[in-house]
């Protein structure tokens, strides 16, 4: 054994091992500082450490088997002991070890007294408790009761969102996980929340069983859980109890002695049940579901004529129907007068309700084209619910139209933080970037929305428009053909024909478009002619746009198609229609 240890010493195996360990330690210090600064993933740090550990026995074996000679590296057994220079090699290893140690000490001093004090520190992490309300599972025998479990989840989300000390993920993002069975840690990471509220609903006749549980997303621990066996008439009380228990479990220090969570707007259970049905069908928009939504809201109002939230919901549903989001549309003047009537009634009954304020804002925009009054109502709604992503989207659109692009972009980025899986929030953000002529950013944002919901309408069309503004006709055509909504797909295809210089095909396509849609697409026809450079036809259709109150008309104030039209002396007359 003594001879073996002497041989280890003679061959400098121990010194090689010491130098290797010091060099490995120094390498890890550099990696620990540089990799996070370069935004490299954490697993790469682990991989470097593993490689260093794995390399140690190979370094020792190498030191045992090989020897450095004046002629270069040789196998130890081929070196004459009388000509061995291992003592000199050992001295060199000592010097190398000393140099590495000096470097390590220097690095530590630089890190402690320079980097830690001078490198820009990340923004402090928000300390507000955060939560996502996942869609409660419908355990009823009748699957038609899905609206009730979804509605309960949404109402709980709305109740919790009113607490300023609590960060609540938006509805769209939370509902993305409906029926997915996703790991709660993944949900917490994607929604940037520390807790989730989940549960189930079983509805049988007038009886309810509601199970709710609050879970820590980091470790999966249950912070609170409860089962409620009640009559349907107790639904309002159950919602308030759940919300208050969640607040207590998260130890939120609320301002004042009491927080009022009741915001139902009706004491009639059946009216509230119909209201939830209306919300469900409105959230699952199609031509058929929009009509079901309208019917449900109208029946709720018949039962309780003072149900402000039902009037607001009815104004939203009729507004979508008139605007033709799911197809059809038209009759804008008469249709938006109906919208205004429902919104005014909601506002009369509940002037401080964010729903009523948003309904009034939409009515003032679409029925009156009154941006000043529209903006006042939205700003007031946001002052009541500053973290409501839907309100932020609406105000972002107002700022966009007013040309305040930087403010609009900042507001909509905040909306995407609150509701990180919301397609509409990313679509609105992309619209701002498009209007601001940041076409690459707009494409990237729209593609983010498309990844979230590949089947969503009106995204491929927007990407195609951005590519047209970049003069990339082929890329625009690739996206245009994938747009599921016919009238916008045909619109972009007409613009592509113009870019390709096919004047005859363009003229035929424009005539067919006008014959098919007429005044219902007055603004789109103005876009087509503005894109082609025909200002006389552009202003003819802009006049029709104003006369019929086409809701698309407001886009004319900012879209690049109208850059030349805005220099025309006829432009102020069109702009004045918006009371700007």
Keywords:
8 strands; Serine Threonine Protein Phosphatase 5, Tetratricopeptide repeat; 580 residues; alpha/beta; 62% helix; two-stranded antiparallel ribbon; Rossmann fold
Q: How would you describe what is shown here?
A:
- This protein has 580 residues and is an alpha/beta fold.
- Among the domains are: 117 residues, no CATH class; 134 residues, Rossmann fold (3-Layer(aba) Sandwich), CATH 3.40.50.10070; 121 residues, Alpha Horseshoe (Serine Threonine Protein Phosphatase 5, Tetratricopeptide repeat).
- Helix content is 62%, strand content 8%.
- Strands 3, 4, 5, 6, 7 and 8 form a six-stranded mixed β-sheet that branches. Strands 1-2 form a two-stranded antiparallel sheet.
- Helix 9 runs parallel beside helix 11, helix 14 packs antiparallel against helix 15 and helix 21 packs antiparallel against helix 22.
- The longest helix has 33 residues.
- It is globular, with a radius of gyration of 33 Å.
- The N and C termini lie far apart (96 Å).
- About 4% of the residues have low confidence.
Layout of helices and strands, plus pairs?
Layout (H helix, E strand, L loop, with lengths): L1 H9 L2 H25 L4 H24 E4 L2 E4 L10 H33 L11 E4 L3 E2 L7 H16 L5 E2 L2 H5 L8 H8 L3 E10 L2 E10 L5 E10 L3 H15 L19 H15 L3 H17 L4 H16 L8 H18 L4 H13 L4 H14 L4 H13 L3 H14 L4 H13 L3 H14 L7 H10 L3 H8 L5 H14 L3 H15 L4 H11 L2 H14 L22 H6 L4
Parallel strand pairs: 3-5, 3-6, 4-6
Antiparallel strand pairs: 1-2, 6-7, 7-8
Helix pairs in contact: 2-3, 2-4, 5-8, 5-9, 9-10, 9-11, 10-11, 11-12, 11-13, 12-13, 13-14, 14-15, 15-16, 15-17, 16-17, 17-18, 18-19, 19-20, 19-21, 20-21, 21-22, 21-23, 23-24
């Amino acid at each position: 054994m003594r001879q073996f240890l002497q041989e280890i010493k003679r061959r400098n195996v121990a010194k090689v091992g010491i130098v290797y360990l010091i060099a490995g330690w120094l390498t890890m210090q550099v990696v620990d500082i540089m990799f996070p600064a370069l935004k490299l993933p954490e697993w790469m740090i682990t991989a470097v450490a593993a490689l260093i550990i794995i390399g140690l026995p190979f370094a020792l074996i190498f030191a045992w088997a090989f020897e450095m000679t004046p002629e270069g590296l040789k196998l130890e057994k081929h070196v004459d002991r009388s000509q061995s220079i291992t003592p000199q090699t050992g001295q060199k290893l000592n010097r190398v070890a000393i140099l590495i140690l000096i470097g390590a000490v220097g690095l530590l001093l630089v890190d402690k007294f320079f980097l830690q004090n001078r490198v820009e520190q990340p923004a402090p992490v928000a300390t507000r408790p955060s939560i996502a309300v996942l869609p409660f599972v419908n355990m009823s025998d009748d699957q038609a009761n899905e609206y009730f479990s979804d509605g309960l989840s949404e109402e709980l989300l709305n109740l919790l969102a009113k607490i300023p000390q609590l960060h609540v993920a938006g509805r769209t993002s939370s509902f993305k996980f409906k029926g997915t069975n996703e790991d709660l840690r993944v949900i917490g990471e994607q929604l940037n929340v520390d807790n989730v509220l989940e549960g189930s609903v079983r509805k049988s006749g007038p009886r309810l069983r509601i199970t709710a549980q609050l879970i820590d997303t980091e470790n999966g621990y249950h912070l609170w859980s409860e089962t409620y066996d009640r009559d349907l008439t107790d639904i309002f009380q159950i919602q308030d109890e759940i919300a208050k228990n969640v607040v207590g479990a998260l130890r939120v220090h609320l301002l004042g002695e009491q927080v009022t969570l009741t915001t139902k707007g009706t004491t009639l259970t059946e009216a509230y049940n119909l209201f939830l049905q209306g919300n469900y069908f409105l959230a699952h928009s199609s031509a058929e579901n929009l009509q079901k939504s309208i019917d449900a809201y109208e029946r709720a109002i018949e039962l309780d004529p003072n149900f402000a939230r039902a009037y607001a919901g009815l104004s939203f549903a009729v507004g979508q129907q008139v605007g033709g989001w799911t197809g059809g549309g038209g009759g804008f003047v008469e249709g938006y007068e109906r919208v205004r009537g429902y919104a005014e009634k909601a506002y009369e009954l509940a002037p401080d309700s964010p729903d009523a304020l948003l309904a009034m804002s939409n009515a003032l925009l679409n029925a009156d084209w009154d941006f000043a009054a529209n903006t006042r109502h939205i700003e007031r709604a946001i002052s009541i619910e500053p973290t409501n992503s839907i309100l932020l989207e609406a105000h972002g659109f107002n700022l966009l139209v007013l040309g305040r692009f930087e403010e609009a972009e900042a507001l909509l980025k905040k909306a995407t933080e609150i509701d990180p899986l919301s397609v509409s929030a990313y679509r609105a953000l992309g619209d701002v970037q498009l209007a601001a002529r940041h076409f690459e950013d707009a494409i990237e944002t729209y593609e983010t929305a498309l990844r979230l919901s590949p089947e969503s309408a009106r995204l491929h069309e927007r990407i195609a428009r951005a590519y047209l503004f970049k003069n990339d006709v082929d890329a625009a055509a690739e996206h245009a053909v994938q747009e599921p909504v016919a009238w916008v797909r045909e619109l972009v295809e007409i613009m592509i024909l113009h870019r390709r210089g096919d004047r005859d095909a363009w003229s035929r396509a424009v005539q067919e478009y006008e014959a098919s849609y007429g005044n219902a697409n007055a603004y789109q026809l103005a876009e087509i002619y503005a894109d082609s450079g025909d200002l006389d036809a552009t202003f003819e259709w802009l006049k029709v746009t104003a006369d019929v109150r086409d809701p698309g008309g407001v886009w004319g104030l900012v879209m690049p198609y109208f850059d030349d039209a805005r220099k025309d002396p006829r432009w102020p007359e069109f702009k004045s229609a918006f009371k700007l």
